């Protein structure tokens, strides 16, 4: 997309607004499938939690993806977007047995990540195939909140508890059709991922009726120029060789599944916001925008870096600004950033705004959530309206006081 396109979108749809480039999503999908082109049965399940807009899901379906869902509502979104139940994997954490049974009744693939639910589900529904989510205790992630493969993580069944899993499977006579690995996000070291994969292969030999092995995802994307990222081409070459070898040893061509979310949509997304005020203090120049962490929480929650540009004045003299929001708390997008001179009314563009940005937006301070626009076939399409006051109050019930 050109910056002129983004400026036109800001003018047409207002600000703040999220914009997603379908071309970038498509190229990322094709890059990953090409990296694993020598796997006979490859399936990418898009992680809905990254960005759950129905139009994004329909785009994923058109590319050939399935879905990775973590809630019954995400399952329902997938069905609403036209996905077949067999294309949807349901991988919850800490939900009730009743919710898992709801998903099973719909017919989607079930992935269970704790012994208690595994035993209860197997006892009640032994004929329904189940995937087991394993925690290999291999760390991945640049921030503690997204590094979830460690031994104290709430995710997955510990690899050391495989004997307990086998006991439950034997006693319930349940059918285990898949095995899944969970390590976290921002994988940098391919060798660490391959090491975790070996742990998963070893665990898989305990189950004789597998249809697939799911390696999760967590591929790191670049957030700034020359930033490090996961070399998916190298990973594809190395893991393909090992996976095909394992299938030969196992005696069956299994499906290899990945669950990319951030990898597919992060770089496609831009967040556009207008500058309300430029405020000079004794030590800092603040650029205050018409948004805050209610719309874009990642910098405050994860200390994540998002490149910021002034697309209204790209040739202006660069100065240092701290870009902040309008929430009445510490609400900082970037400190002392070198940006083309900012004037009140300018439009700032935040990069890498496709994953875990709108999906984590809220109505904090009773602010409206922003609009979403999809750049598709070289045109801007509104795919979510900006909220109004009616949206803020529609589910509130007033009582006589």
Structural description of this entry:
Specifically catalyzes the decarboxylation of meso-diaminopimelate (meso-DAP) to L-lysine. Residues 24-266 form the Orn/DAP/Arg decarboxylase 2 N-terminal domain. One of its GO terms (biological process) is lysine biosynthetic process via diaminopimelate. This protein is an alpha/beta fold. The protein has two domains: 22-265, Alanine racemase (TIM Barrel); 268-382, Lyase, Ornithine Decarboxylase, Chain A, domain 1, CATH 2.40.37. The chain is 31% helix and 24% strand. The chain contains twelve helices and 18 strands. It has helices spanning 3-13, 22-35, 54-63, 72-80, 97-106, 115-124, 162-172, 190-204, 232-250, 262-265, 298-302, 389-393; strands spanning 17-21, 42-47, 66-69, 88-90, 109-112, 130-135, 157-158, 176-181, 212-214, 255-258, 269-280, 285-289, 308-310, 318-324, 332-340, 347-350, 371-376, 379-384. Strands 1, 11, 12, 13, 14, 15, 16, 17 and 18 form a nine-stranded mixed beta sheet that branches. Helix 2 (22-35) crosses helix 9 and helix 8 runs parallel beside helix 9. The longest helix has 19 residues, at 232-250.
């Amino acid at each position: 997309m050109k910056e002129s396109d983004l400026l036109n979108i800001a003018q047409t749809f207002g600000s703040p607004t999220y914009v997603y480039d379908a071309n970038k999503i498509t190229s990322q999908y094709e890059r990953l499938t090409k990296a694993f082109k020598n796997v006979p049965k490859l399936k990418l399940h898009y992680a809905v939690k990254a960005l759950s807009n129905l139009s994004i899901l329909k785009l994923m379906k058109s590319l050939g993806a399935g879905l990775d869902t973590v809630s019954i509502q995400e399952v329902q979104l997938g069905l609403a977007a036209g996905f077949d139940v067999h294309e949807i994997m349901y991988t919850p954490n800490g939900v009730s047995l009743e919710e898992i049974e709801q998903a099973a009744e719909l017919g989607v693939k079930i992935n269970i990540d704790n012994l208690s639910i595994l035993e209860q589900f197997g006892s009640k529904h032994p004929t329904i195939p189940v995937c087991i989510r394993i925690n290999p205790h291999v760390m991945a992630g640049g921030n503690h909140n997204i590094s979830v493969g460690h031994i104290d993580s709430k995710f997955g069944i510990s690899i050391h508890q495989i004997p307990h899993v086998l006991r439950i499977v034997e006693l319930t006579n349940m059918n285990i059709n898949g095995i899944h690995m969970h390590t976290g996000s921002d994988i940098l070291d391919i060798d660490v991922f391959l090491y975790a994969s070996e742990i998963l292969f070893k665990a898989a030999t305990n189950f004789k009726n597998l249809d697939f092995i799911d390696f999760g995802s967590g591929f790191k994307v670049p957030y700034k120029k020359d930033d490090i990222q996961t070399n998916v081409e190298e990973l594809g070459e190395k893991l393909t060789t090992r996976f095909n070898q394992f299938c030969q040893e196992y005696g069956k061509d299994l499906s290899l599944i990945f669950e990319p979310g951030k990898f597919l949509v992060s770089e496609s997304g831009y967040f556009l916001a207008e500058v309300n005020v430029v405020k000079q203090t004794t030590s800092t120049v603040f650029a205050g925008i018409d948004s805050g962490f209610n719309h874009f929480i990642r910098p405050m929650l994860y200390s994540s870096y998002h490149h910021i540009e002034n697309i209204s004045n790209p040739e202006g003299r660069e100065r240092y600004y701290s870009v902040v929001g309008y929430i009445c708390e510490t609400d900082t997008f970037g400190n002392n950033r070198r940006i083309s001179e900012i004037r009140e009314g300018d439009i700032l563009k935040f990069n890498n705004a496709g994953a875990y940005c709108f999906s984590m937006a809220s109505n904090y301070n009773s602010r409206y959530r922003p609009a979403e626009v999809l750049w598709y076939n070289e045109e801007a399409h509104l795919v979510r309206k900006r909220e109004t006051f009616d949206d803020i109050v529609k589910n509130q019930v007033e009582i006589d006081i």
